[in-house]
Amino acid sequence: MPASSAAASSAPASSASAASPASPQPEGVRSEGNETIAYRAALQVIAGSEPSIAQFIVEELAAQRRQLKLIASENYASPAVLLAMGNWLSDKYAEGVPGRRMYAGCEVVDKVETLAAEHARELFGAEFAYVQPHSGIDANLVAYWAILANRVEAPYLEAASAGHVNDLTDEDWADLRRKLGSQRMLGMSLDAGGHLTHGFRPNISGKMFEQSSYGVDAASGLLDYDEVARLARELRPLILVAGYSAYPRRIDFARMAQIAADVGATFMVDMAHFAGLVAGKVLTGDHDPVPHADVVTTTTHKSLRGPRGGIVLATAAYREQVERGCPMVLGGPLAHVMAAKAVALAEARRPAFGDYAQAIVDNARALADGLSRRGARLLTGGTDNHLVVLDVAASYGLTGRQAESALLDAGVVTNRNSIPADPNGAWYTSGIRLGTPALTTLGLRAAELDEVADIIDTTLRATTVATVGTGPSRARYELDGSVADAGRRRSAELLSRFPLYPELQL
């Protein structure tokens, strides 16, 4: 894909604007009370139909306000993004694409989708953007089937002198189905930081492809590009997938693209986790996947700080197949979510977003440094992106499940995560994954992230493995209540200085 000609960005750099990452107000001017008025009114309307749901919404806000969110795949969307989802755009069916729908009356939805796609193209410098996917999994499914349609189905139809799959004989259709179901994919292994949707058996992608994995160097924990190239030459995959959910370093996408080209593979990148770093121009050149990949997928709710949803970016060669995502894979487009995507992408095109994206990485490095100085073992020894993987087994003698639960007691929300060749498996794990996008949105910076590192280290050093029956448990743990209380107080004090949605008083 060509490099972007111009892509400005936006986001908050301080807690005062954290709840409204892209406020259009001039500096020093606030729309006092607008957010509170809007949400109080909305909650009153909801309570009129189901008061329990209104109460649960308020409870969720309270829960998020009292916990330090370090889940790498979560963030805080602006009130504008959230409000864009709660409206009558939800009530329109719009299968198809702008100007070519299966339902009448989609003139406004066409405008919404066109604007969202325009923002995505300009922000990332892509030739084509498809903003309909409902999630990251859906975006990947659209990408996979678009690649299969381009690389397998289209040549088959041409050879059979058929214009459409419905024109094939039953025998030819059965033959094409076999070919579609026997293609190879090469992607990053789960324990090295890959994702379930990259061809693994529990996910539908693993039932679609003959999947093989590349891992990381056992000593350094870093990608071994020579080994990836060797596997690609041996396996000759149709698709080479790059991207990660728990790899704390940057990827040389130019080199991966060359590996794919050498074996005739389509190069696909899933940048769901680090799309905000690409949008904010922290990842550029060989570390920006968009100029190098045939197809790029992403979610919109992680480091992009938008609504829950997905996007597919592609070269013009794949546009026709990607646009068939609905009804090929997707149900009717969610017009209200596409509207929220347009708002979030517009926010990300403003200049302040670049500062925000850089602060995410700076904060991750500060967190990694703080943990390392306190004696913790980190995968690869640190980070170059938005996340840190802490080996809690080596550092504290705990499983990831025990560490995750103990930290929650102390007011810190994380998620357990496998490490390479994990002896505790994928359920209990030996690691926890820590991400900085959400705390960066709140306005925390290096000094506060060092304090967060101390809360984590102090809590985990005080956590011990509980005994169940005659042996140690991999789930139960013991943590002195005074230590948990101290952690919660410290977490609460940080959050009092950097509150979530300070303009919302419910």
Major β-sheet strand ordering: 4-10-9-8-7-5-6
Number of structural units classed as domains:
2
CATH topology value of the largest domain: Aspartate Aminotransferase, domain 2
Could you give the count of β-strands? 16
Radius of gyration, in Å, reads: 23 Å
CATH superfamily assignment of the largest domain? Type I PLP-dependent aspartate aminotransferase-like (Major domain)
Total number of helical segments? 20
- First-to-last CA distance: 46 Å
Structural class designation: alpha/beta
Model regions low in confidence, pLDDT < 50 over at least 5 residues: 2-31
Q: Can you name the CATH architecture of the largest domain?
A: 3-Layer(aba) Sandwich
Strand content: 5-15%
- Kindly provide the name of the CATH class of the largest domain: Alpha Beta
Chain-averaged pLDDT: 92
> In percent, how helical is the residue content?
40-55%
Instruction: Summarize the main sheet.
Output: 7 strands, mixed
Broad shape: globular
